[in-house]
Design a protein that fits this description.
By secondary structure, this protein is an all-alpha fold. The chain contains six helices and no strands. The chain is globular and about 75 Å long.
C-alpha cells in the first residue's frame, strides 16, 4: 500500500509536463501578438506600451522554463523523453526571448516607423506561433500525430514565406535606398 503511494508520488501526472509546455507555447503566441501590435503601432507611446507588456510576458516565459527545469530534475519518469521536453521547452522560451529582443531593437533605435516588410514578418511569426501552439496542445496523449505533422508542415511553409518576404524586402532596399544615413 505504501509502495503504491510512493510510486505515485515519484511518477508525475503526465498533465504536469504537458501543462507546462502548453503554457510555454501560449507565452510564445502572446508574444507574437504583442510583436504584431508593436510593428503596427503609430506612436512611440503605443510601442512603449507594447514593450512593457512584452517584458512582462518574457518574465512569464522565464518562470515557465524554470518550472520545467525543476520538474525535470525532480521527476524520475517523464511522459516524453526528458531531452525532448527540455528541448521543446527551451525552444518555446527562445521564441519569446527573440521576440523581446526584436522589440527592444525597435525601441533602442528609436524608429519612427518600422522598416518595410516588418509588419508582414511579424504577421508570419504570429501565424507560426499559432501553429506551434496548436501542435503543442496535441502532444497530450500522443494520439494525433498526423495532425501534429500537419502543423509542422504549415510551420515550414510559413518559414519559407517569411524568408521570401525578407529576401524581397532586403533586395528592394538595396535597389532603391541611396542614403544609408537617412532618417
Amino acid at each position: 500500500m505504501w509502495l503504491d503511494r510512493a510510486v505515485q508520488w515519484l511518477l508525475p501526472r503526465e498533465e504536469h509536463f504537458f501543462d507546462l509546455l502548453e503554457r510555454g507555447s501560449a507565452s510564445a503566441l502572446k508574444s507574437s501578438v504583442i510583436l504584431v501590435e508593436c510593428c503596427g503601432a503609430k506612436t512611440a507611446a503605443e510601442r512603449e506600451s507594447a514593450i512593457t507588456r512584452m517584458t512582462e510576458e518574457e518574465h512569464t516565459a522565464d518562470r515557465v522554463i524554470h518550472e520545467v527545469y525543476e520538474a525535470l530534475n525532480k521527476t524520475f519518469v517523464t511522459p516524453l523523453d526528458r531531452s525532448d521536453i527540455y528541448s521543446l521547452a527551451t525552444d518555446l522560451e527562445d521564441i519569446t526571448d527573440l521576440i523581446n529582443r526584436t522589440m527592444m531593437q525597435i525601441v533602442l533605435h528609436a524608429l519612427d516607423e518600422v522598416p518595410p516588410g516588418s509588419t508582414q514578418l511579424a504577421a508570419k511569426i504570429h501565424e507560426a506561433c499559432t501553429e506551434i501552439d496548436a501542435a503543442v496542445k496535441l502532444l497530450r496523449g500522443m494520439k494525433k500525430l498526423d495532425e501534429i505533422r500537419q502543423h509542422c508542415k504549415a510551420i515550414g511553409k510559413i518559414e519559407h514565406d517569411g524568408d521570401q518576404i525578407f529576401r524581397t524586402t532586403v533586395a528592394e532596399m538595396f535597389k532603391t535606398e541611396k542614403d544609408a544615413d537617412r532618417k
